[in-house]
Amino acid sequence: MIRIAAETPWYELFSRGGRDWLRHNQKVRDAVSSQLPELLSGGDLITHPRDRSVLVPVKFLEHARFRLAEADTQAGAGQGEGAPGQVLRPAQAHDGEVPAEGGSGDGEVRFVVELKVDEIVDWLWQELELPDLKPKRSAAMHDPEYVRAGWDKHGARARLDRRRTVKEAVKRRAMQEAPLAFTNDDLRFRQVVRRAVPALDAVVIFALDVSGSMQEAQRRLAKAFFFFALQGLRRQYASVETVFIAHAVQAWEIPEEQFFQASGDGGTAASSAFRMAQALLAERYDASRYNGYLFYASDGENASEDREPAAQALAELAGELNFTGYVETNGGASRYSSTQMAELFAALKEKPLPVGAARLASLEDVWNAIRGFFRAQAAQAAA
Fold first, then answer.
1. Which CATH number fits domain 201-382: 2.160.10.10, 3.20.20.70, 3.40.50.410, 3.50.50.60?
2. For residue 201, what are the β-bridge partners?
3. Residue 322 pLDDT exceeds 60
């Protein structure tokens, strides 16, 4: 008989094979988390094919085993309980051994795991524990679907409802003397009708400040945020289209592979990106069919003469879109509160409009920004 005490660790409730699987799975998750910046550094990560995979190196796991020690180098026996992962004896280099050279000693073994990008995103998304959004159903009709709509005495044999047919036969026999088992009048066939359904499409516009003040580290943080924001929306909508806008003084629509490498000189005029976003929405994406989102990344700087045009264009966009998010990629909290773009978004949030803003200084800030934006959208959808 096996007795399980209340203080038994949950880890010990699994079999040896189950514990090994849990350890391996945790090792893979740790490896993915530690190498996430490198995994997100690809040039076409956002619009990549769904079946794209990446290679992640993971430490090889070995079972504990007894090994006889050499009498002239080690003696004695260990006592007491050990904990998983505890280092009993650190590895020591032999005298005269030169690191990084070939030899016959034992070393750490690693193997490479090939994972699909969507699998990695699923893991991370479960850990974030984000709420499910309620997409706004538009008035436009999308592709029709066929739905059940009652029964009929005539129809295709493949749609014969046997249970309904038996019920009709039972009701008939209850009112007749010496009734037949089944008649043609007992047959019931499921009917389907063609019905148009509301469109659940979305367009996501990514706008990035590419002026000279934006450094490579700031671009990588913006890219990580853009990637996970898009993954969250793809879990809510049947079809999601993306648009990439880069701007300095002027704005350009460019493909993703050039989006995070683009750079410009001179000043910064955020209104150029907002006006281009308005023009693209009016030209390509009917507001009655598409749910619109805008995510903008900048270091917060903007030309003083562009403040009013940017505020006006941004307010018009925020009134049309489902949500407008802003992330500021700089490391100073006090500086963030005083930048022009942060002030513009704070003013829109007080109106109130569906907007959000966050500061990115590290990858952990990306997770916090994603949590904040999606929870804000869920609260607005529920209101």
1. 3.40.50.410
2. 239, 290
3. yes
